[in-house]
Design goal:
Layout lengths: L6 E3 L5 E3 L8 H16 L1 E9 L1 H4 L2 E8 L4 E4 L9 H14 L1 H12 L1 H5 L8
C-alpha cells in the first residue's frame, strides 16, 4: 500500500508537499476538512451534523455545494464501520426528498443565485 500525499501550490506556482498528521477523533478530522474544504475540494461548506428528520433519523456529518453546483454529502469514519453504505444510501434518499430544504439552506448560506443554480441532475 502506498501513502497518500497532498500538495499545495506556493506563491511561485511550485508544488509543496503538505505535512501529514493523524487525528484522535473523527470530529477533529471533520472540523479540519470543513475548515479547508473549499480550497481542498472545491466544496462550499453549508452545515455540520445536519439532521435528516424523523423519517431518515440521521445526521449528515457535512453538507456542501461543489463548484459545479452539485450537492455534496460527506460522512466521516475513523475506521471500518459496518452499515456505512446503508447510512449513505439513506442520506441520498433524504436529499432526493428534501430539495426544498436543501435549497433553503443554500439560499441562507450562499445566496439566492446559488440556490437557483443547484444541479439536481448530476449523478456521480
Amino acid at each position: 500500500m502506498t501513502d497518500l500525499k497532498l500538495f499545495r501550490l506556493d506563491a511561485d506556482g511550485q508544488d509543496v508537499e503538505l505535512r501529514g498528521s493523524t487525528v484522535a477523533l473523527e470530529v477533529e478530522l471533520q472540523r479540519r476538512i470543513e475548515a479547508g474544504m473549499e480550497a481542498m475540494l472545491g466544496i462550499h461548506f453549508l452545515a455540520s451534523e445536519y439532521p435528516t428528520g424523523p423519517w431518515h433519523r440521521g445526521r449528515i456529518d457535512t453538507l456542501g455545494l461543489d463548484e459545479n453546483n452539485t450537492p455534496a454529502l460527506i460522512e466521516f469514519k475513523k475506521g471500518a464501520v459496518a452499515g456505512v453504505l446503508s447510512q449513505s444510501v439513506s442520506y441520498l434518499a433524504w436529499l432526493d426528498s428534501a430539495h426544498h430544504e436543501f435549497e433553503a439552506l443554500v439560499k441562507e448560506k450562499l445566496g439566492t443565485e446559488a440556490a437557483e443554480s443547484i444541479d439536481w441532475q448530476t449523478r456521480g
